[in-house]
């Protein structure tokens, strides 16, 4: 057993049956001057130092002045890709928009061309390095999407890389099929044929793969957006995924509001992600649903588009999660700490709301809340011990700098 003593603030304590929503997001449950016991890879118990009873610990970590909290839950990433896209970054500096770059064959299609040329092993090696970097920045659970393949073969290659990561890296990892990320060049004149390929070939074959114990795909995603996929196409693809028990998690309302949220809610999506453009009708559709809104402020920052109106979402009594959207086109940063700062500075969320959005609500957004995302007895001991800080408010305050002193992953000091 490991014992952490004298914890200045122990954050996100307690039991969570559902995402934290509305006004409750501003109530960060915590203990001050606390201890925590780890047994094997789990949180065994925690409490106030005043109540600490003799414990036969093999190792004691003194956390005087330090904050202990669950590792970040990054519920939306595109971790697998072949090449960075800094030329497009410069094109944007010179005045082109994301959509203009995409219409010239850049963007997602650019990444898809590069990925098809790269071997599974090389993709795996790069992805593994990035995953270790994410962990070193405090991420303790992650969702990873396909979507730079856009052929049966290349989408499968991406999913197999994710499956290998699941096997080799012991943090919760979820795989999302995002074959409907863009219409590939070869289907430009016949988009229905690509939809058919996803529905009739990819989903059935990927979901019945019996190569290993863990599923190749956990969720189904689509980029529902003007110039990408319509609401009708989203209905077709998500419905096909649901038949194979894939819960939808969708890219929607990034540039325009076209009714995708209402449809996603009707299909009982786990999350709707982006939401930079959000109408009152979209908010109404989310009220009374279990679909979680997810904001991706790194994307807004990097491609200079509006930020998700988090205050409107929270005022409507809804929960919100935040994630990196890590990808080579719109958000090449794996830092959840930076996203938490952005949530405070650009989305006007309080530090309490931002920390909840990046931990327990993130965990619910990728269906791992039974395992991680809070300081709860029995959950995985995936913990951040910060440097000495006056309070948790200093975590987003020090933007762009990691406040991590020690990481505990699966009960082991990293
Ligand atoms: O979440 N919006 C769609 N997909 C990604 C960007 C993909 C890319 O540009 O490579 C996103 O921002
Ligand atoms: Fe994304």
Mind explaining what this structure looks like?
- It is a single chain.
- With 414 residues, this protein is of the alpha/beta class.
- It has two domains: 2-70 and 374-413, Urease, subunit C, domain 1, CATH 2.30.40; 72-364, Metal-dependent hydrolases (TIM Barrel).
- The protein is built from 15 helices and 16 strands.
- The strands form two sheets. Strands 1, 2, 3, 4, 5, 14, 15 and 16 form an eight-stranded mixed sheet that branches. It has an eight-stranded parallel sheet with strand order 6-7-8-9-10-11-12-13.
- The longest helix is centred in the first third of the chain and has 17 residues, at 120-136.
- The model has no long low-confidence stretch (mean pLDDT 97).
- Bound molecules: N-(iminomethyl)-L-glutamic acid and fe (iii) ion.
Brief summary of the model shown:
The protein is of the alpha/beta class and 414 residues long. The chain has helices at 86-93, 98-103, 108-117, 120-136, 152-168, 191-207, 231-243, 260-266, 280-286, 297-303, 310-315, 336-345, 351-358, 360-365, 394-397, and strands at residues 2-11, 30-39, 42-48, 59-62, 66-70, 72-74, 139-145, 173-180, 219-224, 247-252, 271-274, 292-295, 321-322, 383-388, 404-409, 412-413.
Chain-averaged pLDDT: 97
The assigned CATH architecture of the largest domain is: Alpha-Beta Barrel
CATH topology of the largest domain: TIM Barrel
Query: How many domains in all?
Result: 2
> What portion of the residues fall into strands of 2 or more residues?
15-25%
Radius of gyration: 21 Å
| Structure classification | alpha/beta
> What is the helix fraction of residues, given as a range?
25-40%
* Unreliable runs: none
Q: What is the terminal separation in angstroms?
A: 16 Å
Strand segment count: 16
Shape: globular
Q: Oligomerization state of this entry?
A: single chain
Give the distinct bound molecules: N-(iminomethyl)-L-glutamic acid, fe (iii) ion
CATH class of the largest domain: Alpha Beta
Largest sheet: 8 strands, mixed
Treating each run of at least 4 consecutive H or I residues as one helix, how many helices? 15
């Amino acid at each position: 057993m490991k014992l952490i003593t004298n914890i200045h603030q122990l954050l996100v304590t307690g039991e969570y049956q559902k995402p934290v929503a509305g006004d409750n997001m501003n109530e960060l449950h915590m203990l001050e001057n606390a201890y925590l016991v780890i047994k094997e890879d789990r949180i065994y118990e925690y409490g106030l130092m005043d109540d600490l009873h003799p414990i036969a610990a093999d190792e004691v970590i003194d956390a005087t002045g330090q904050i202990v909290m669950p590792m970040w839950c990054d519920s939306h990433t595109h971790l697998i890709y072949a090449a960075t896209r800094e030329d497009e970054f410069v094109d944007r500096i010179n005045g082109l928009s994301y959509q203009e770059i995409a219409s010239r064959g850049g963007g997602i299609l650019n990444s898809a061309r590069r990925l098809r040329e790269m071997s599974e092993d090389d993709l795996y090696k790069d992805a593994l390095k990035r995953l270790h970097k994410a962990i070193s920045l405090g991420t303790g659970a992650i969702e990873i999407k396909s979507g730079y393949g856009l052929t049966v073969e290349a989408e499968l290659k991406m999913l197999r890389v994710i499956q290998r990561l699941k096997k080799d890296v012991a943090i919760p990892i979820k795989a999302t099929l995002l074959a409907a990320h863009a219409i590939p060049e070869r289907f430009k004149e016949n988009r229905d044929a690509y939809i058919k390929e996803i529905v009739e070939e990819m989903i059935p074959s990927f979901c019945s793969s019996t190569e290993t114990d863990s599923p190749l795909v956990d969720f189904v995603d689509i980029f529902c957006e003007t110039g990408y996929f319509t609401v009708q196409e989203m209905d077709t693809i998500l419905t096909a995924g649901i038949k194979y028990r894939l819960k939808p998690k969708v890219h929607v309302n990034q540039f325009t509001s076209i009714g995708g949220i209402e449809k996603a809610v009707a299909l009982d999506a786990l999350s709707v992600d982006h939401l930079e453009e959000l109408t009152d009708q979209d908010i109404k559709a989310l009220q009374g649903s279990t679909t979680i809104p997810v904001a991706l402020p790194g994307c807004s920052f990097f491609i200079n588009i509006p930020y998700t109106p988090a205050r409107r979402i929270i005022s409507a009594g809804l929960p919100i999660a935040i994630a990196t959207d890590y990808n080579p086109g719109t958000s090449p940063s794996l830092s959840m700490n930076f996203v938490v700062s952005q949530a405070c500075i650009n989305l006007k969320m309080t530090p309490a709301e931002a920390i909840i959005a990046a931990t327990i609500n993130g965990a619910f957004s990728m269906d791992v809340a039974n395992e991680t995302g809070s300081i709860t007895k029995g959950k995985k001991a995936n913990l951040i011990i910060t440097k000495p800080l006056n309070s948790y408010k200093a975590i987003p305050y020090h933007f762009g700098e990691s406040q991590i002193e020690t990481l505990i992953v699966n009960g082991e000091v990293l």
